[in-house]
Design a protein that fits this description.
This protein has 2 domains: about 210 residues, Porin (Beta Barrel), CATH 2.40.160; about 140 residues, Porin (Beta Barrel). Helix content is about 15%, strand content about 55%. The chain is built from 3 helices and 16 strands. It is flat.
Length: about 400
């Protein structure tokens, strides 16, 4: 009975973490997805696309089942916002919306297929009378028909949970072929994993090429460079971020111990030197309390400190209210040996006020995603550094 209660409690915690991540992703993309206050500055459209790619065999554990070519069918509902309020999110015009996809990994017995739904934001990097060039970033949730089973399906070490979290980055060229019809040609990079919720979790990385057609509800006008940031930098600025981190991981059942959910907490402080209005370099330190390691040590009856500390260095892309950060961490204190001394972290955060940011992050050791979580940051000395 006690083990049943524990399983229920950890199941509730896992569901809660999934909902928190979904809600946070929704909050980050909400300013771009909600209808514009002025419909004359918003242009909605629907798209259909097909993608074809290949799976990168990033580990020997999944190499034997990586020799297939995923086929993806997608439908999108998007909006091009040309208002100044929308422009300030990325300091450029942007497209945003949601996407639903069916992914056939073309290995029905082992890897199966997946269905996903995601939100995305897509700032324009160039535009003209008949074309739009953009960079799209998105994420959401996916359901998988085949997962790892120690007896029935041991070779599928891509996914060990039915629910996973897809992330993708696209570079797209839209070209007008008729009044309201655009051809969309994209190069895509896709990643799907459970963010360390359960092992094995090698995840899947698969680049694709995409061809699609998009139909606007009404013709869009010629976009002009009529907006500009009020930011005027005489001297490059410096700002500091104090950030709290939290994530959820599951320790598998083993040697008489039941499956157990654990939380990881951390504190990351970094100082960033702004090189341009939209780019900065950063350096800092990260202190980590990982319940997964603590539980592992308890089961192994090892008296080792589970805490870790790392120095970090990386870069920030300052896209209006959105900040995309990537950095490397180097463990200088890690009594319980990590998979690698160096790890990488990717984070997207949204400024909900002048000083407060919320975000989501993914921590990985080389190709193995270790922790998916949420962050909250407080910014110091940001006056005259970041655009409002």
């Amino acid at each position: 009975m006690q083990s049943v209660k524990k399983s229920i409690n950890y199941g509730i915690k896992g569901i809660l973490m999934h909902r928190i991540l979904a809600l946070l992703s929704f909050i980050i993309f909400l300013p771009s997805v909600i209808p514009a206050q002025n419909d004359s500055l918003s242009f909605s459209f629907t798209g259909l696309n097909i993608q074809y790619g290949y799976i990168i065999p990033h580990s020997i554990a999944i190499e034997a089942v990586s020799n297939t070519n995923p086929l993806v069918l997608g439908i999108t509902r998007s909006r091009l916002n040309t208002s100044y309020q929308g422009w300030k999110v990325f300091n450029t015009y942007s497209v945003s919306g949601f996407q639903a996809r069916y992914i056939n990994f073309q290995n029905p017995e082992i890897v199966g297929s997946a269905f996903d739904i995601s939100f995305f934001a897509e700032p324009l990097i160039s535009y003209g009378k008949n074309y739009l060039i953009s960079v799209k970033g998105g994420g959401g949730v996916s359901y998988h028909t085949k997962i790892y089973e120690p007896v029935d399906n041991p070779t599928n070490q891509f996914f060990s949970t039915r629910i996973n979290f897809p992330l993708y980055m696209n570079v797209s060229l839209r070209f007008k072929v008729a009044g309201k019809v655009y051809l969309n040609l994209s190069g895509c990079y896709n990643h799907i994993s459970n963010g360390g919720q359960k092992q094995p979790n090698y995840g899947m990385n698969f680049p694709t090429v995409s061809l699609g057609m998009e139909y606007f509800d009404r013709p869009i006008p010629q976009l002009k460079k009529e907006y500009s940031s009020h930011l005027k930098i005489v001297k490059p600025g410096v700002f500091m971020l104090i950030e709290t981190l939290s994530g959820y991981r599951v320790v598998e059942a083993s040697d008489g111990f039941p499956e157990k959910g654990t939380f990881a907490f951390g504190l990351h402080t970094r100082i960033a030197k702004q090189i341009t209005p939209s780019w900065s370099l950063n350096a800092g330190g990260e202190f980590i309390l990982d319940g997964f390691i603590k539980e592992t040590l308890r089961r192994d009856q090892e008296d080792i400190d589970y805490k870790r500390f790392a120095f970090t260095a990386g870069q920030d892309f300052l896209l209006g209210r959105v900040i995309f950060t990537q950095y490397l961490g180097f463990y200088v204190y890690s009594p319980y040996k990590a998979k690698n001394r160096v790890y990488q972290k990717y984070e997207i955060a949204y400024r909900i006020s002048d000083n407060l940011l919320v975000g989501v992050f993914l921590k990985a050791h080389t190709s193995d995603a270790e922790l998916l979580g949420i962050s909250m940051s407080y910014m110091l000395k940001r006056k005259h550094v970041l655009p409002r």
